[in-house]
Automatic annotation (TrEMBL):
Keywords: Cell outer membrane, Membrane, Receptor, Signal, TonB box, Transmembrane, Transport. This is Putative TonB-dependent receptor. It is a multi-pass membrane protein. SUPFAM superfamilies: Porins. It comes from Beauveria bassiana D1-5. Residues 254-803 form the TonB-dependent receptor-like beta-barrel domain. Residues 62-166 form the TonB-dependent receptor plug domain.
């Protein structure tokens, strides 16, 4: 880390020199001001954020936008905390994701259903989590993020092929966020600290990692860890240049103390984390570097180049080791594994050609490359012992090219003004198992996935009171596995009984569990399941034969995707809208070519070949935007909609009848519900509210049902779809007030609620998984925050998350790992 910090410091020290040279060059050349990339003052960025919030109330696609003010206010101590502000969004296992993001929207989650796009680049890696299922992980430090937009529902665009649930777009900080108003160069230092966490103090000995003593409590005044970010930026009429470096150190957090009895009033806490106790394997240390350059080449061309490096060590644990005991001193002990690692490099180059006087061209081209290397405790065949087991290492690379052009077409009779957007996208993903001292790499897919698509969208205004749009996309996906497994079968021949029927009774050793006739003439032996005992008494010969090989290549020429929407402009302030989408998703590499892990698409027993998914989504509602609604100068935005989503051939983990635990096609998975979104701002007082209510969530699978009903609302006991389901109700309300004449003091509160969520009875019973959550109780949280702008160069922010210190399990959790208790945060931000 010292070496990385030294290299980063050299780069950042050189920035003022580079910028000075750039500025001098700009002054000595005959240049003219360009308007393609906005390099105006910071205040304009805030106005742009507000404008984007208002834009979400015009679109027939339900969206939520969080600008830099909201991101800084609610980013919390974990990267996923910012999404607590958005209803209908659920984080997969937030306490056990090694600091990564895995986002679900209205029950759609994982394997590319909700891509996270950061500065035009997609970085996500499917990660084996044993019986907990899988994670679609994206790595980022939220201190580098300035805005988040969540689009709920399918859309057709350059980076949405297979995005059947929606899309998350993040933008990293830019020069406007760093440079003081009306200046051309700036340095930003952001320092923060928080309590309610401690560094785990034992990693070295593999035996000791299984016997980590859990601390029972921590003082509220103990602020041990935190983060800092230093950024430098310069700008002129030719563009801008930015460099930023951040480090974050967070220990194991402590669970809340209140309302724990609703989970158990007996002896359950002897096996799981107690109220107020340290939560093992939740620490996280990371460092990140960001470099961005914008260039206005001429009045028609602009260029944005972004490079991001992220390196981390973070805790996580497989469910099979989530057990707790007492040592001789009477202390609670639990497995505290050494920290897994992840290292990411991401680069994107975005070019825009937008000739002002030519309505036929607004061409945007994006080339991106991401490379992730991990070594984490989520493998099946690691080389360690005791607490240092299950190491798994991989390299995941993505190379993508997205091209989109927008043309403004001349008005024609009946159709009126029209806009046509069309383009193509190409992406190749390569996954390589890595063999290290601790990892054999055998628990990962070994192969590649290629995706290509062509798309087009058209919108028209045939009349002033209606806007119509439609889109179409054709996608082809090819999967290739570098591994091929032979299917093997043992054949037994018993001369005493060739009639058959008994051959299906094979135990886990591949031997008959009984013999029709024994050597001694008797029909009973002491241990019929012991192969040695069976060999003593059974007359048979055994032969192993190869019955086939697993497929290495898969091709999915998907049916065309289609979207359409109608927006009726009842008044200038009020719209009524409806939208329809019929889209498809091919399996990910992890779903189709994974081998050698808990979930394997192929083993010696056979292969699970999955079909592509089909998703139909219908949404209808109204959106309103009013000014001067209650008082002069206020703004009131309102949106309500009903949604219905049905997925055929939904792909999720399941235990098949042949014993293979793999991804399979469920018959269907459907959700329907209501969503409400409100924003109100007077300039002084402001409030926002979001509500998502699911009227119905239904999972159907004849394969999984057995003798039970093939459809239910919670999933199946030996399936992995249940973590995707969301509670019936999710409500978030925020209210605040800006004090003083210049609004420099901002005080506010947030209320969060979700109802109870029920999981299948005896969920994963009979597996090695421990402390499985059969339900997540209803939870209520109160968060408070304050921000004071001392002057143009200094801002102080403070917050308390989970003010009432609730003991809670997240609804997206599969295992019993509670959420953080009451946590105080303090941040000081300086610009100069």
């Amino acid at each position: 880390m010292k070496k990385n910090l030294k290299n980063t410091s050299i780069c950042m020290i050189s920035l003022p020199l580079l910028y000075t040279t750039q500025a001098f060059s700009a002054e000595t050349e005959d240049l003219h001001s360009l308007g393609v990339i906005d390099v105006t003052a910071t205040a304009d960025s805030k106005k742009l954020d507000k404008s984007k919030v208002e834009d979400t109330y015009y679109s027939p696609l339900t969206s939520t936008f969080l600008g830099k003010t909201e991101v800084d206010r609610f980013k919390g101590t974990r990267n996923s905390d910012i999404f607590n502000q958005i209803t209908g969004v659920q984080i997969n296992n937030p306490a056990n994701e090694a600091g990564a993001l895995d986002i679900g929207i209205r029950g759609m989650q994982g394997n590319g259903r909700v891509p996270i796009v950061i500065d035009d680049a997609v970085q996500s890696t499917m990660t084996e989590r044993g019986y907990q299922g899988s994670s679609d992980r994206t790595y980022i430090d939220m201190d580098l993020i300035r805005s988040v937009q969540v689009d709920k529902g399918p859309a057709i665009g350059a980076d949405t092929a297979g995005a059947t649930g929606g899309r998350v777009e993040m933008r990293t900080i830019n020069a406007d966020d760093i440079i003081p108003d009306k200046e051309s160069f700036g340095i930003n230092l952001n320092i923060g600290t928080y309590n309610n966490n401690k560094k785990p103090n034992r990693f070295g000995d593999a035996r000791e990692q299984l016997q980590y003593p859990l601390k029972r409590r921590q003082s509220a005044t103990d602020f041990r860890n935190g983060f800092y970010t230093v950024a430098m930026a310069g700008r002129n009429d030719r563009g801008s240049l930015l460099m930023a470096y951040t480090e974050r150190d967070t220990g194991n957090y402590f669970a809340g103390k209140r309302n724990a009895r609703r989970y158990d009033s007996g002896t359950k806490f002897d096996q799981v984390t107690r109220p107020g106790q340290e939560v093992a394997n939740t620490s996280n240390y990371n460092s990140s570097f960001l470099a961005k350059a914008t260039l206005n080449a001429d009045e028609n061309n602009s260029l944005l180049v972004t490079y991001r490096h992220h390196k981390q060590k973070a805790g996580e644990i497989l469910s099979a080791y989530l057990t707790k005991e007492k040592n001789e001193a009477g202390d609670d002990i639990q497995a505290q594994w050494s920290l897994g690692t992840a290292e990411l490099d991401a680069v994107s180059v975005s070019h825009r050609f937008n000739p002002i006087e030519n309505p036929w061209f607004d061409l945007k081209s994006v080339l991106f490359y991401t490379e992730l290397k991990t070594e984490q405790h989520n493998g099946f065949n690691g080389r360690g012992q005791y607490g240092d087991q299950y190491w798994n290492s991989l390299r995941d690379r993505r190379l993508g090219l997205n091209v989109t052009n927008t043309s403004l077409l001349p008005a024609v009779p009946v159709m009126g003004d029209m806009q046509l957007s069309y383009g193509a996208s190409l992406e190749k993903q390569l996954i390589d198992p890595r063999v290290t001292r601790r990892s054999s790499g055998s628990s990962n897919p070994d192969g590649n996935r290629k995706s290509s698509s062509l798309f087009a969208n058209i919108s028209a205004e045939p009349f002033s009171w209606v806007t119509a749009s439609a889109g179409i996309r054709k996608t082809v996906v090819n999967l290739h596995s570098n591994q091929q497994i032979e299917y093997k079968k043992d054949i037994f021949d018993n001369p005493e009984n060739r009639g058959g029927g008994w051959r299906s009774y094979l135990n886990q050793y591949g031997l008959p569990t009984y013999c029709p006739t024994f050597v001694n003439g008797k029909y009973f032996i002491a241990d019929a399941n012991n192969p040695d005992e069976v060999k003593k008494h059974c007359l048979y010969t055994r032969q192993e034969i190869v019955t086939g090989q697993s497929k290495k290549d898969f091709r999915y020429a998907l049916r065309p995707d289609f979207t359409a929407s109608l927006t009726f402009h009842i008044t200038p302030e009020l719209d009524v809208f409806t939208s329809y989408a019929n889209v498809n998703r091919a399996p990910s590499a992890y779903e189709q070519i994974s081998q050698g892990s808990t979930m394997s698409s192929a083993s010696y027993m056979g292969q699970s070949v999955v079909n592509s998914e089909n998703t139909q989504n219908i949404e209808a509602g109204l959106a309103a935007r009013y000014q001067d609604a209650i008082t002069s100068g206020d703004k009131f935005n309102f949106r309500i909609s009903k949604f219905y989503n049905k997925n055929k051939n939904y792909i999720a983990p399941a235990a098949r009848w042949d014993g293979l635990y793999a991804f399979v096609n469920y018959d269907s998975f459907s959700t329907q519900g209501t969503e409400v979104q409100i924003d109100y701002d007077t300039g002084k007082f402001y409030t926002s509210a979001g509500l998502t209510r699911f009227d119905k969530q239904t999972v159907c699978s004849k394969l999984m049902a057995g003798n039970a009903s093939e459809c239910n609302s919670v999933g199946f006991s030996m399936g992995g779809i249940s973590t995707r389901l969301q509670p019936k109700d999710n409500l978030v309300v925020t209210a605040g007030y800006r004090f003083l004449e210049d609004n420099s003091l901002d005080l506010g509160m947030r209320y969060r609620y979700h109802s109870r969520k029920q999981n299948p009875e005896n969920w994963l019973s009979g597996t090695a998984a421990q402390q499985i959550m059969e339900h997540a109780d209803a939870n209520q949280f109160i968060d408070i925050y304050a921000s004071y702008k001392v002057n143009n160069n200094l801002t102080v922010q403070a917050g308390i998350d989970n003010l009432t210190d609730q003991y809670a399990i997240a609804p997206g959790a599969a295992v019993w790992i509670p959420e953080p208790g009451r946590t105080w945060r303090l941040t000081i931000n300086t610009k100069f």
